[in-house]
Amino acid sequence: MSAPLLSLSGVTAYYGAIQALKGVDLEVKQGEIVTLIGANGAGKSTLMMTICGNPRARQGQIVYDGHDITGLPTHRIMRMDIAQSPEGRRIFGRMSVQENLVMGAETVGHKNYADDLEKIYTLFPRMKERMHQRGGTLSGGEQQMLAIGRALMSRPRLLMLDEPSLGLAPLVVRQIFSAIRELNRSSGLTVLLVEQNAFQALRLAHRGYVLVNGAITMAGPGAELLQRPEIRAAYLEGTH
Question: The whole model's pTM is what?
Answer without folding.
Answer: 0.91
